[in-house]
Design a protein that fits this description.
This is HD/PDEase domain-containing protein. The protein is mainly alpha-helical. The protein has a single domain, classed as Hypothetical protein af1432 (Orthogonal Bundle), CATH 1.10.3210.10. Helix content is 56%, strand content 3%. It has a two-stranded antiparallel sheet with strand order 1-2. The longest helix is centred in the last third of the chain and has 21 residues.
């Protein structure tokens, strides 16, 4: 008799998250902040003394989203902060790997995102108009990351991520910090947004 493969992960909070059937009650912001602070973007291929984490990226995307949609309700800023939250358990796969894995990756990501959204008072699925704005902020962040820390020329980054609005990026720079600092910053920003809901 074959044993069934384990499809859950024990979190530092003590929660046991079932990846095939995630429930909002097993989602804790401390686990998300911790996991994202230790997950490197760009497969760790970035300049600097610390990896550029998904948590740091998420903070930047939320800031850019706020500049793109300054009148958006706070709940959509929270959605922007949480846009990559499933990666706290599934990691950050670069786009070519996602393409190779196929649609199963997207389905897993969607299940986790829905549970995370519900846990923090958001609808399971973000409206398409808001999702497009968050994606725009995500692409601007990727362009900034590519040109500032991942070795891309501006022309090459523009080819892959589009030409960003320079005004939206004004005064922003990529920050590389120790994971413990990024974890704290992510948790604090989440707390601020939740308090404003």
């Amino acid at each position: 008799m074959a044993t069934q493969a384990r499809a859950w992960q024990r979190m530092l909070s003590g929660r046991r998250l079932d990846l095939l059937d995630p429930t909002p009650v097993d989602i804790e912001i401390e686990d998300i902040a911790h996991g994202l602070a230790f997950v490197a973007r760009w497969n760790g291929q970035t300049a600097g003394d610390f990896a550029y984490s998904v948590a740091e990226h998420s903070l930047l995307v939320e800031e850019l989203f706020g500049r793109i949609a300054p009148k958006a309700p706070v709940k959509w800023r929270l959605a922007a902060l949480l846009h990559d939250a499933p990666e706290y358990v599934i990691g950050d796969m670069i786009s070519p790997v996602k393409s190779a894995v196929g649609p199963d990756y997207g389905a897993l990501d969607d299940r986790l995102a829905a549970a995370i959204h519900i846990r923090f008072g958001l609808p399971a699925a973000v409206p398409k108009t808001v999702k497009r704005q968050i994606k725009k902020a995500d692409k601007i962040s990727a362009w900034m990351e590519a040109t500032q820390i991942a070795g891309f020329s501006e022309a090459e980054a523009t080819k892959f991520f589009g030409r960003p609005d320079k005004a939206v990026m004004e005064g922003l720079e990529i920050t590389l910090r120790p994971p413990v600092d990024v974890r704290r910053a992510y948790s604090e920003r989440h707390e601020v947004l939740i308090a404003q809901l």
